[in-house]
Amino acid sequence: MKFQSTSAAAALLLGQAFGYPLPSSNLLRREVPQEHSHDLFLTITNEALAKNNPKGITDAVFGLLGNAAAANGAGSVTNLDCLKQETADQAFTNGKAAKDIRLMAGALVYQALERNTGKVGLASVTCTEQAVNPEIEAVKPHQDPASANAASINKGITLELAKQLKAIGADPNLALLSGTFAPGDLNDATAKGNTCDDTDPQLGCIFTTGKLVLDASQDEVASAVSAVSQTFTGTGGIQATDLVDLSKFSVQGGAAAPADNSNAATTSQAAAQATPPPAASSGSAPSTASGNNVQTFTGSLGGPPPPVVSGTGNRPFSVNGNTFVNIGAALGRSCDIQHNACADAVNSGQLSGGVGQCEDQNTQCKAAASGASNSNASNTSNASDNASNGGVNNAASGNNADSGNAGNDNAGSSAATGDFGSCSDPSIKFANGLDGRTEPAFAPVNEADFSHGSALAIKVISDFICDRLNSSCKASAAVVSTCQSASAAASQLTGQAAADAFNKALGV
């Protein structure tokens, strides 16, 4: 697998350093060829890294690149052969400090991903420094599948990763998702090998294109971890079977992946109790271990939409391990995942009739989502409006009462539509320590869809989000208009009150 740097990496550095929006037409998030193969785990690693990034590593993707390209985002790391390990190590440390098993698991899987080499069949250079965390130290990166002894080396890496995952209370089958592509042609002059570069920030194109080759079977993983005891207790979680159907991928050696069995699907009891995962995708399932499935759409082209699990907490809605504040955003994500699966089925020849039927189904799904969002909003509108009116107007000290009311008036409109296009959760956070700042700042909550460094003025972030909703996300005109009004209103406020006003206006 080959990763290559572009001038976008330098542009990304500038955007994060100075907190201004980069033109969406020139730069997509981490726009480097082949970086989208395991996008989910890069996203999780970046989420963990953002909690504390003392060496200023720009993005997890730079750890997957060759040294020349990696230098553009290495921060103060000088041994570029170890940039990937340093990134994983810091992300794991941050996840452990937060007792967040999802972040720890993401960092471990990231550590096991294959790193760029200059040609097909060339193994990557080994980092000779010792990691701070023994769990990271135990896991080595996959090697190019066409390199010498890669099959046995990569299988060993996957099984060791599974052990480390079980030890922290995570799903050991996540280790299978660290695998790479089928071996490429040693005479391939492009050095690309078998790769993919389709944007899929929710998962990764190696999964959605079916190009992942499993290094081991689920039975082999279960056997490898059978004697491993859990040594860490935390919260959060992510399950391999909530992300992909492992039975659809081939296992190294040519055999089809076995169907799930009770042993292979079992994760540690403590992890399951800490954060019960969403049930496997099923549009008709009435509930899951962690709450009710509020996705009522029954269309099934390409498979049913994944459940939208309604639970408790600050982000009570969950879709395939991703959490949301607003039911409309969660239902929209569920519809989009189904839409992508439908299009993939058409493009692969598994479903006849063209992609138009997928578009029609997605429209119907989002119409149903809008109805559900309306119902949810009407059930809670009185309490939330009263709380928001009091909080926002008080924060405005009376002088900005019109701004506070503008934000509240827009909330019902946006929540009713729930249409953020191909994106989800456009909310803004106000927090300390963003991008190493000593003062609190604003930043997008959803870095996958709205990649932007932090800024001291909310309007820098809110205007960027509105622009992205209009351009890349293709959100409805009503939502874009609401966003622009919310941005103007929030700019009249300060601190958390400004973020709350913007988020309330968009219903997130």
UniProtKB/TrEMBL annotation:
Superkingdom of this protein's organism: Eukaryota
InterPro entries (alphabetical): Appressorial_penetr-assoc (IPR053216)
Low complexity composition bias: residue spans: 255-293
Signal peptide range: 1-19
Annotated stretches, region: Disordered: 255-314, 370-418
Keywords of the record: Signal
Protein name (database record): Cell wall protein
Organism expressing this protein natively: Trichoderma harzianum
Taxonomic lineage: Eukaryota, Fungi, Dikarya, Ascomycota, Pezizomycotina
